TrEMBL record:
Record family assignment: Belongs to the RLP family.
GO molecular-function term, one example from the UniProt record: protein kinase activity
Database matches in InterPro entries: Leu-rich_rpt, Leu-rich_rpt_typical-subtyp, LRR_dom_sf, Plant_RL_S/T_kinase
Compartments, record wording: Cell membrane; Membrane
PANTHER family: LEUCINE RICH REPEAT FAMILY PROTEIN, EXPRESSED (PTHR48053), MDIS1-INTERACTING RECEPTOR LIKE KINASE 2-LIKE ISOFORM X1 (PTHR48053:SF126)
Protein name as annotated: Leucine-rich repeat-containing N-terminal plant-type domain-containing protein
UniProt keyword list: ATP-binding, Cell membrane, Leucine-rich repeat, Membrane, Nucleotide-binding, Receptor, Repeat, Signal, Transmembrane, Transmembrane helix
Record field: transmembrane: 632-654
UniProt source species: Triticum aestivum (Wheat)
Record-linked Gene3D superfamilies: Ribonuclease Inhibitor
Membrane topology: Single-pass membrane protein
Top-level taxon of origin: Eukaryota
């Protein structure tokens, strides 16, 4: 943009003037502006609205703008501003006109100002989220009788929630999640009866939900208290919150049975109760009244019995997770009536996997299916007519001791990105059709009993060679997925590593040289098989590898020196093979412990007990003086014993034959 060729500033792009020619608005959002914001903007005495958001400024926000006597709306969000938000100068003593202040998503730090808000009694919207403010939430924020929205999320605020915020009679949205707040919810807070969205996730808040107080917030649409330390039961009075649409209580220490009155919250769309200690019969809640419900997540609780049939009446339900509870029995055929895109049943003692899959076959929208640690010791369904869930992108069937072969119906899942089949008892060879899974970039079949050679077709899976196309469809999931530990959440499948894990099987033969085609692999694990031959030089082409494990095989030959090019390696193991020669001393290989090389007595290197000779070909054994003397004594003794034995034999022979 350019203002150079026009002399009348009212003609400039982003500038609005009144009839008298005075500038009333500067709107330059997303213009790629750099440098510092000029304090002289505040000299435009008729200026009402300033929008400089989504630019790349440096420095701080001029206090002249914040404390202008004319500006009503000031938006500098997403503009890379930094520094301190200054308190007002002593010359500013009267109430300011500012109504909307958006300084979110910048790099402001230091203590969040407190006196400032005493002068902003016309403030309607304050958004200071996604910065690095410290200190406490100022009680003076509610001196504005018009404050409707207060967002302080994603900062480093500490202390408690001020009781004075209960005086915010017009406050509709209060968000202060992802800070370091502590203490309990003050009873006075529930005097702010206009509240519609109350969001305090990921803090250190504690205490129980007071049923007598919570019913005062009759306008509540969103209650988000997840990832805190709340305890106790969900009060039965929650059923009086007739406008409630989203209830997030996950990741707390709450317990007890669910109140049947939850059925009265007929507008509920989301129920998140995961990772608590709720127990009892989930059927206490009549889900058939919750026709707006789209997401139900009760992961890792202590519910028991059967999954209530009333859930299958929720015609709008698209995400259901009942994993890590104590449900039992067979999967109800009625679940096939739902239009699910996400279903997780993991770690419940469900039975009859064949029947379950014929029910799942009616799913047309399912993208995520998690049934791990169920159907224990049953046979993997082999029915080739299963073809209903062709939109599947993520399937997790691990840890179930399933028997049988890889079923042919898997080859029809052309959208499959992640396949987890580890810790089962599957047998037979890896089928040649594996390369038909064009979208697959994560394959884990570890700890099974697969046999045969590693098929060349495995090296032809397109997304293991070039995953650029994956980002055109990042695979967003309806509920966060957990991988390796429950603190790591994934909202997109492309956040998973590109992985090929065939470990702990009975694969034989050599590592195919074509492995070098899989240039986007970040984790490769062929450990604990019966592979032989050399480490192919083409492995050195896998420059994005972070994990390489070839341990516990029968590999021989030297370690390719070009492995030094794998600069991202953080885990490396070639122990218990028959490798020989020097360990390459450059790159990441020199950073790994000697346990990564154990069980290869012909290897030598600076990080090993066995050092290499100056030529690098012969192994030099570095031993102590004590070890040397013991070995010398042994060989001298052995020599004397051998010599005496030979002399004795000669005497005996002479006696009998001489």
């Amino acid at each position: 943009m350019s203002w150079r060729n026009v002399t009348d500033c009212c003609e400039w792009e982003g500038i609005t003037c009144n009839r008298s020619g005075g500038v009333t608005e500067v709107s330059l959002a997303s213009k790629g502006l750099e440098g510092r914001i000029s304090p002289h903007l505040a000299g435009l005495t008729g200026l009402l609205r300033v929008n400089l958001s989504h630019n790349s400024f440096s420095g701080g926000l001029p206090p002249e703008l914040m404390y202008s006597r004319s500006i009503v709306v000031l938006d500098v969000s997403f503009s890379r501003l930094s520094g301190v938000l200054h308190e007002p100068p002593s010359s500013v003593t009267t109430t300011l006109t500012l109504q909307v202040l958006n300084i979110s998503s910048n790099q402001f730090g230091a203590e969040f100002p407190s006196y400032t808000w005493k002068l902003m009694r016309n403030l309607v919207v304050l958004n200071a989220s996604n910065n690095s403010f410290t200190g406490h939430i100022p009680p003076s924020l509610c001196l504005s009788s018009s404050l409707a929205m207060l967002d302080l999320c994603y900062n480093q605020l500490s202390g408690g929630i001020p009781a004075a915020l209960g005086d915010c009679s017009t406050l509709e949205v209060f968000k202060v999640g992802h800070n370091n707040l502590s203490g309990t919810l003050p009873a006075e807070l529930f005097h702010a009866t206009s509240l519609e969205h109350l969001s305090f996730p990921n803090n250190g808040l504690q205490g129980e939900l007071d049923g007598a107080n919570i019913v005062k917030l009759s306008n509540l649409v969103t209650l988000d208290l997840r990832e805190n330390k709340f305890s106790g039961k969900i009060p039965g009075s929650i059923g009086q919150l007739k406008r409630l649409e989203e209830l997030y209580l996950g990741n707390n220490n709450m317990s007890g049975e669910l109140p049947s009155t939850l059925s009265n919250c007929t507008r509920l769309m989301v129920i998140d109760l995961k990772i608590n200690n709720f127990s009892g019969d989930l059927g206490r809640v009549n889900f058939s009244t919750l026709q707006n419900l789209t997401h139900l997540d009760i992961l890792r609780n202590n519910f028991s019995g059967i999954v209530p049939e009333s859930i299958y009446s929720c015609s709008n339900l698209i995400a259901l997770r009942v994993s890590l509870n104590h449900f039992h029995g067979e999967i109800s055929p009625r679940i096939g009536n739902l239009h699910l895109s996400f279903l997780s049943l993991a770690r419940n003692p469900f039975t009859n996997i064949t029947k379950a899959f014929h029910v799942f076959n009616s799913f047309r929208n399912i993208t995520t299916l998690i049934i791990a640690e169920n159907f224990v010791n049953e046979m993997m369904p082999q029915d080739e007519t299963l073809d209903g869930f062709r939109n599947l992108q993520y399937i997790h069937m691990a840890d179930s001791a399933l028997t049988g072969h890889l079923p042919v119906w898997l080859s029809k899942l052309r959208n499959l990105k992640v396949l987890k089949l580890s810790n089962n008892r599957l047998t037979g060879p890896m089928p040649g059709w594996i390369n038909s899974l064009h979208s697959l970039f994560y394959l884990d079949v570890s700890n099974n009993s697969f046999t045969g050679q590693i098929p060349i077709t495995l090296m032809e899976i397109p997304m293991l060679k070039d995953n650029t196309a994956a980002y055109l469809d990042p695979g967003q999931v309806e509920l966060p997925l957990f991988w390796r530990n429950i603190s790591r959440q994934y909202h997109f499948l492309t956040a998973f590593p590109t992985l090929l894990n065939l470990s702990i099987n009975n694969f034989t033969g050599v590592i195919p040289p074509e492995i070098g085609q899989l240039k986007v692999l970040s984790e490769l694990d062929f450990s604990s098989n019966k592979l032989y031959g050399v480490i192919p030089l083409s492995v050195c082409n896998l420059t994005k590898l972070e994990v390489l494990d070839l341990s516990n095989n029968h590999l021989r030959g030297v370690i390719p020196a070009a492995l030094e090019r794998l600069h991202f390696l953080s885990a490396f193991n070639i122990s218990n093979n028959d490798l020989e020669g020097p360990v390459p001393a450059g790159g990441q290989l020199s950073t790994f412990p000697d346990s990564s090389f154990d069980g290869n007595p012909k290897l030598c290197g600076t990080m090993l007990v066995h050092r290499c000779s100056s030529t690098g070909a012969d192994v030099v054994y570095v031993i102590s003086a004590k070890q040397l003397s013991v070995k010398v004594i042994f060989f001298v003794g052995f020599g004397l014993f051998f010599g005496v034995g030979v002399l004795y034999d000669q005497l005996v022979l002479y006696r009998y034959f001489g």
